[in-house]
Amino acid sequence: MSPPLAVSCGDPSGIGPEIAAKAWEALRVELPFLWIGDPRHLPLGLPFQIVEEPALAPAISAEALPVLPLAFAEIAPPGAPDPANAQGIVEAIERGVALVSGGDASALVTAPINKKGLQDGADFAFPGHTEFLAHLAGVDHVVMMLACDALKVVPATIHVPLADVPDALTAESLTQTIRITHKDLIRRFGIAVPRIAVAGLNPHAGEGGRIGTEEVDWIAPLLEKLRSEDLDLVGPLSADTMFHEKARAGYDAAIAMYHDQALIPIKTIDFAGGVNVTLGLPFVRTSPDHGTAYDIAGTGMADPTSMIAALRLADRMSRRAARG
What we know:
- There is one protein chain.
- The protein has 324 residues and is an alpha/beta fold.
- The protein has two domains: 1-141 and 284-324, 3-Layer(aba) Sandwich (Isopropylmalate Dehydrogenase); 150-269, Isopropylmalate Dehydrogenase (3-Layer(aba) Sandwich), CATH 3.40.718.
- Helices cover 36% and strands 16% of the residues.
- The chain has eleven helices and twelve strands.
- Helix 1 (16-27) packs across helix 11 and helix 3 packs across helix 4.
- The longest helix is centred in the C-terminal third of the chain and has 19 residues, at 305-323.
- The model has no long low-confidence stretch (mean pLDDT 95).
């Protein structure tokens, strides 16, 4: 039997525990997983069972949520991050990485965190999950992909102010992003010859240099060089015509130049079902494509659709990687 998926708890004052509980209720027979966190933070009345060995999780899952316990400093009233629990949140992520790195879990699924809360309570030195996971895995460059059934899209720059994007976007970083995306489309998604569409930076992809020159100066030549190395690339394309249904049929993944250029189309196409995937890691990691939702935490209103999609995608990706 394959090792279970590992799910780190995220911020327990947000909706992480609730969507994990609802995901277990939906998937407990189909797809066992191991929840890492303080059981005091789970919804009242949820059946759970403490496990010391991840391998026990599949046998337990049909009747109770398997829990690998971590003692947090405080209980977690919903609605706002508690700095006292920040270190526990970080340790849950670290424990999840250790499990998947050691083969005791097949993939890691992370519930949402609050970066400022971690900075305030645990001196968290990373912009977010993605960069922290790269640090723990010892890799220099990783890629954030947002995925749903209709679209896979990668922002070449992530949490960068729009005014800083042209400087942050370099030939070296874009090349790394394209190569990692291409490699993991093959390795993690089973696409033998990935077709990748690359957006331009400027409106209308610069319109031949009349609305910005980055496309003419270096983006188009870079793509031509990579095409000569047998990568199937098209672009730079005008981003406003890349994401309608007919256009999406022509590629397997799109690379956008900045955060909103990537996230607006996927959240428009599938707001509830999008999944955040980290490419370039030595293990599979996915996450729901939403935040902590403090405003509805503890109300029972949280939608587990994205968490369920993240679990299913992590399972498919890890099984494909295991088959080689």
